[in-house]
Amino acid sequence: MMRAVLADTGPLYAAVDPHDARHKQAIRELSKLDDEKHQVVLAYPTLLEAYTMVLYRLGKNVASTWLDEIGQTAMINPTPEDYRDAFARVRALGDQDITLFDGTVAALAIRMGLEVWTYDHHFDVMRVPVWR
């Protein structure tokens, strides 16, 4: 049986940047996800955020290669309701620095019943199940 996790930007970026403090952890976790038959699902806003980080921090060549590698990943679009839910989450937790990217991933995860693969404590604050 194939299970899935919804990826956040942090682990995606860490996996591609060998100088990232969590690079080795991300590589181990990718292996564990594969061993446990977890499919990694990527929201399009997360793809855009992660690509931008890879492009500006690691350069065009790495970004291009990363797009080729990530291209086989299952991707989903948030619905308008997911975005409205994200707006509400961000407003409800106004004392936190929660991005709309994270709010949108949280909304998708809740709607789809998925855990989030993340290093961001804000998902715990939003009470979203986190894959660990």
Task: Give structural notes.
The protein has a 4-stranded parallel sheet, with helices on both faces. It is 58% helix and 13% strand. The mean pLDDT is 96. The two termini are 19 Å apart. The chain is built from 7 helices and 4 strands, in the order βααβααβααβα. It is globular. The protein has 132 residues and is an alpha/beta fold. Helix 1 (9-16) runs parallel beside helix 3.
Tell how many strands the DSSP assignment holds. 4
What is the CA-based Rg, rounded?
Answer: 14 Å
**Low-pLDDT residue intervals, each spanning 5 or more residues:** none
Give the ordered list of helices and strands.
Answer: EHHEHHEHHEH
Oligomer: single chain
Which structural traits does this protein have?
13% strand; globular; 132 residues; 4-stranded parallel beta sheet; 58% helix
Layout of helices and strands:
Elements: E1 3-7, H1 9-16, H2 23-35, E2 38-43, H3 44-58, H4 60-70, E3 74-76, H5 80-92, H6 100-112, E4 115-117, H7 122-125
Report a brief summary of the structure.
The protein has 132 residues and is of the alpha/beta class. The chain has helices spanning 9-16, 23-35, 44-58, 60-70, 80-92, 100-112, 122-125, and strands spanning 3-7, 38-43, 74-76, 115-117. Strands 3-2-1-4 form a 4-stranded parallel β-sheet, with helices on both faces.
